[in-house]
Amino acid sequence: MRIGIIGCGSIASEIISRSKNVVAVYDICPDKCKKFGIKICGSIEELIEESDLIIEAASTEAVKEYASKIIDSGKDLLIMSIGGLVDDEFRDSLFKKAFEKNVNIYLPSGAIGGLDIIKTAKIAGLNKVTIKSTKNAKILGVDCKTRTRIFKGTAREAIKRFPKSTNVTVLLMIITGMDIEVEIYADPDIKYNIHEIYIEGAFGSAEITIKNHPTPENPKTSYLAALSPISILEYIDKKVLIGV
Question: What does the pLDDT profile of the chain (244 residues) look like in tens digits?
Fold first, then answer.
């Protein structure tokens, strides 16, 4: 399987260091890609031609601009910037097109976990889903002396305010089918990212807490998020799937 990547940041670095199948990359700033020593494509069309699976690791804008074109080409797509799927009409259209083209769209768990519980609990019905995210104040661009709540609202509102920091909220929204409750906290002393997920439903209740160290290359990206697409790549061709 030939893998192409959109975006040459920390997530791309992690994937390329752990997979021998990445054959090409594309970025609107091609100089960022030179460190990888693999083919740098001059256009998204060239990347599509070179690849069987394309991993978007750039931005929500890249999802909106390139996702439909990739699916139209009959190539599989893994989306990291899941906030690009917040619009219902765009998301439904993309998923429908993938079904018609018989291609796969992969949405990794990113910086959170417990999605198996949530998907299973949804079968019986969910009453409430909330997520509280705490990140270093500098990463969020906030000046505060103690842990401070800087946002409370829905996933749709959160991704508009913090497009690079709340992709997991949109992932939860898609999985649950609910515009979930979101709280974001800035903490000047914290050195990792914390996500606290609370779910209630007919099954009972669950609390899931994830404490993420940042990637060595970029403190804005959780290490677990950078590893999540690699986990999917390891499962794609498996005949036995565990915990899915």
Answer: 999 999 999 999 999 999 999 999 999 999 999 999 999 999 999 999 999 999 999 999 999 999 999 999 999 999 999 999 999 999 999 999 999 999 999 999 999 999 999 999 999 999 999 999 999 999 899 999 999 999 999 999 999 999 888 999 999 999 999 989 999 999 999 999 999 999 999 999 999 999 999 887 887 889 999 999 999 998 887 767 676 6
Same domain, 9 and 85: yes
Question: Which of 75, 122, 135, 195 is an active site residue?
Answer: 195
Domain tally, the chain:
2
- Asked whether residue 42 falls in the same domain as residue 72, the answer is yes
The CATH number of residue 193's host domain is: 3.30.360.10
Strands 105-106 and 148-154: unpaired
Active site residue 213: no
Range of the domain at 33: 3-110+227-235
24: tokens are 């090409």
